[in-house]
Specification:
Number of domains: 2
CATH topology of the largest domain: Arc Repressor Mutant, subunit A
Order of helices and strands: HEHHEEHEHHEEHHH
Largest sheet: 3 strands, antiparallel
CATH class of the largest domain: Mainly Alpha
Strand order of the largest sheet: 1-3-2
Number of strands: 6
Low-confidence stretches: 2-12, 80-89
Radius of gyration: 21 Å
Length: about 210
């Protein structure tokens, strides 16, 4: 009887873990949009961490910012041999998308420092202005807008921007971007500006020559 009771408890725990981990494997969970899953992860953090560690994953839980996700751990770092295949793949980003992510992260840092609203909402025009400084003065306006729209869609798919419902061309910068563009990298950002500017100038010259 006691053994049956223990088995039932273990079954319930496994079901709870499965209901938590499966959504995490699909992407980031936010407290504001997934309150039930958020609370479940909060209640079972240690069990979730132990379970996903077997899969070579790490639970990233930021209670202050209100998001949680899984990321792959480096097999060398955790001394696993042979190395585990990556369950969550790394996707290299185009240079311009990486730059726009950094600019959005910098804008979020400035927004937080101002002590205003928690959410950072930007229009498409404001996002275009962020990147315009890196473009030659004679850049084709229509082409710039098309490129920025493409970058915005890519960043939405990555989960760092969210288009506001019922508000055309208005976007919320998701706070999870702080995890991927950290404070140390951001502190060095101004030192990289000349490198970015040079890159875009060379890119523009290649387009003109082509």
């Amino acid at each position: 009887m006691e053994q049956d009771k223990q088995n039932n408890v273990e079954t319930i725990d496994n079901q709870q873990l499965s209901s938590i981990i499966i959504p995490l494997l699909k992407g980031v969970l936010y407290q504001e949009t997934h309150p039930n899953h958020w609370q479940a992860v909060l209640n079972m953090q240690s069990q979730v961490r132990d379970f996903v560690a077997v899969l070579g994953l790490e639970l990233i839980f930021d209670e202050a910012e209100g998001f949680v996700f899984l990321q792959s751990r480096d097999s060398a770092e955790i001394d696993i041999k042979p190395a585990l295949p990556r369950l969550i793949a790394r996707r290299p980003l185009p240079f311009s998308v990486s730059l726009l992510l950094a600019l959005l992260r910098k804008k979020l840092a400035e927004h937080d420092a101002s002590g205003g609203e928690m959410r950072l909402i930007l229009s498409r025009d404001e996002i275009i202005e962020l990147i315009r400084i890196f473009l030659p003065e004679n850049s084709n306006e229509a082409r710039v807008i098309d490129q920025v729209d493409t970058h915005i869609r890519r960043i939405i798919n990555l989960g760092f921007l969210r288009q506001l419902q019922g508000q055309d061309k208005m976007y919320e910068v998701k706070r999870i971007i702080k995890t991927f563009v950290d404070a140390q990298w951001l502190a060095e950002f101004d030192l990289r500006l000349s490198e970015y500017l040079k890159h875009f100038q060379e890119q523009e010259e290649d387009n003109d020559n082509g």
